[in-house]
Amino acid sequence: MTLEDDARDYHRRPPAGKVEIATTKPTNTQRDLSLAYSPGVAAPCLDIADDEDAAYEYTAKGNLVGVVSNGSAVLGLGDIGAQASKPVMEGKGVLFKRFADIDVFDVEFDHDDPQAFVESVAAMEPTFGGINLEDIKAPECFEIEESLRDRMDIPVFHDDQHGTAIISGAALLNAADIADKELSSLNVTFSGAGAAATATARFYVSLGIPHENITLCDIDGVLSESRAEAGELDEYAEPFARGVDDGDLEDAIEGADVLVGLSVGGIVSQEMVRSMADDPIIFAMANPEPEIAYEDAKAAREDTVIMATGRSDYPNQVNNVLGFPFIFRGALDVRATEINEEMKRAAAEALANLARQDVPDAVVKAYGDGPLQFGPDYLIPKPLDQRVLYEVTPAVAEAAMESGAARRERDLDDYREELEARLGKSREMMRVVLNKAASNPKRVVLAEGEDEKMIRAASQLVEEGIAEPILVGRTKEILRTAEDLGLDFDPTIADPESGEWNHYVDHLYERRQRKGLTRTEAAELVRSDSNYFASVMVAMGDADAMLTGLTHHYPSALRPPLQIIGTADDADYAAGVYMLTFRNRVIFCADATVNLDPDENVLAEVTKHTAELARRFNVEPRAALLSYSDFGSVTNEGTRKPRNAVEQLHADPEVDFPVDGEMQADTALVEEMLTDTYDFAELDDPANVLVFPNLEAGNIGYKLLQRLGGAEAIGPMLVGMDKPVHVLQRGDEVKDIV
């Protein structure tokens, strides 16, 4: 099947289209329905009648954008009409929801008259929190946007104009820096003079490019004053008319620092690229064929050609999805009256800054495992980089507040956390711990300090101020890798091969001399095994916590800290716990990594450790000890162990959380089963701490929950140790380490 055939099948597959309406409140009972509609709905209606701003409190208006078009300039298809544009508008809604959790109604008006279009859109202001104009031909799009901005008290944004301007503007900020050129000295030539080109030119002026340094060309050549005087230019292009002799694109490109292509493919030659200034910047954004092919532009010269296109198969894709979802998210959340120039600049600057940060492994993998590092081939973030939501959006919101466009003030730190929570429950839960860590950063020794991921993690820990990392490894290797990665930080390094570590040898020998370890062997372990080195470092108080396991099998990584640090004074056993985060629920699963066949004593202690861990995440524990039996329905050695462990816990005066069992997994998790069938159970609500009867069940269980339940797994977290030690899974990503 062709791509076109696949697309038709994709769209027609039941239910047809790409969007649906879903309810956000319970509708299960008669009372629910009476609250949702008549008679209960009258109360919020009357409140809104008294104060229209109450609509943001009682309705979805504050998270609802209208994507509006007349189908007069749809993608590369031209004027195909309102009805035919609907799949595109639905698609735009998908992007709003996918990237910024914004709901969308797509609205297609069969209007050729711009004024009729304006009247129709303006009449919908009570419905929407913002309007995204889409695929409207020039010059009518300028008139329509200006009229609606004047008439409406909600944000109105024509993405075809401003989206390209903002994203390419972010790329330009970084490209100019890489080329070591000042914005105020750049000479910029545009191939194209339509809506996107003129809007982009205006935005570049707001970024600091002198107006007189910008030359626009259309199909008839340079936009000159003589052409303006002859009435050949519309009112939106006329301000860029230059007092130069009439010429063509080839003339305008000569000596230019920047070429911005927003026209048609294949019209720029290698000879034209060679005529540009040193280290030229070329944004060839015509789709699907750029004004000049990426390979041709790069091969045209021997100096650095900084290149961006509109295509995803080349570096530096100028993709509007990096802009509009996050700009609207920020505008909606401060109830902005408009999207002004300050907000657009803030978005561009935030995108440019984000491109300078270390790129998450998940993003690298999504784009083919190629290197993504700030430089000529990485000017702007990738669309699948989740950080765009909580880096760009707060910048837009802040600009709205500072410029007077906002009707609602937001604390930016709280707002950033709210945005992270939109990415999933795991972000919300981890933010609890990150805030605690930032308030009192600890010294964390990273045993595999020469590993690239560990070095990147260390850099992030320092940047976010949540820990003081110590990298174990050869100093030269670590510094070389950090430099190759472009990381701007001064790592703290503990090099076992240099320095005086005899006191570490003494400590290890003292701990293990009656376990068959000689002093010579202790010295060799300290010098050659970073897990032993890091374990001694923590045991002697030179570090507060330890991470390892990235390049080791779990048992071999766990052995040194167990031998040297050991379990806590009040603990006999360690255990591995995973935190699983679902959309509206958090579950702690134990033990999934350490105890192969625990007895009742181990199960009881693991339950207490896991409950304590849950409280560190501000989760009040409700523990269930699992089996295939419910409260004695089956009696054998296997079911007696969790049952006896529960009896121990009930008899323990230090246990101040509800715990019960043995019980089946669905009994523990389904409220109706607990409250109806087993109303005697200690748990009044579903369990959030699940203690499995053995390692096999625990490992299988958490992975099934993770994969089939769509949960994100954080861990394993090692509990019961005398000092904090965590053994990572082999191949974990940087975000997992952090």
TrEMBL record:
Any one GO BP annotation for this protein: malate metabolic process
Keyword Oxidoreductase included in the entry's annotation: yes
InterPro entries: Aminoacid_DH-like_N_sf, Malate_Decarboxylase, Malic_N_dom, Malic_N_dom_sf, Malic_NAD-bd, Malic_NAD-bd_bact_type, ME_PTA, NAD(P)-bd_dom_sf
Signal peptide: none
Pfam families noted in UniProt: malic, Malic_M, PTA_PTB
CDD domains: NAD_bind_2_malic_enz (cd05311)
Record's keyword terms, sorted: Metal-binding, Multifunctional enzyme, Oxidoreductase
Keyword Metal-binding in record: yes
Malic enzyme NAD-binding domain sequence ranges: 161-401
Required co-factors: Mg(2+); Mn(2+)
Highest taxon above the source species: Archaea
Domain Malic enzyme N-terminal: 16-149
Name of the protein this chain belongs to: NADP-dependent malic enzyme
Species whose genome carries this gene: Haloferax denitrificans ATCC 35960
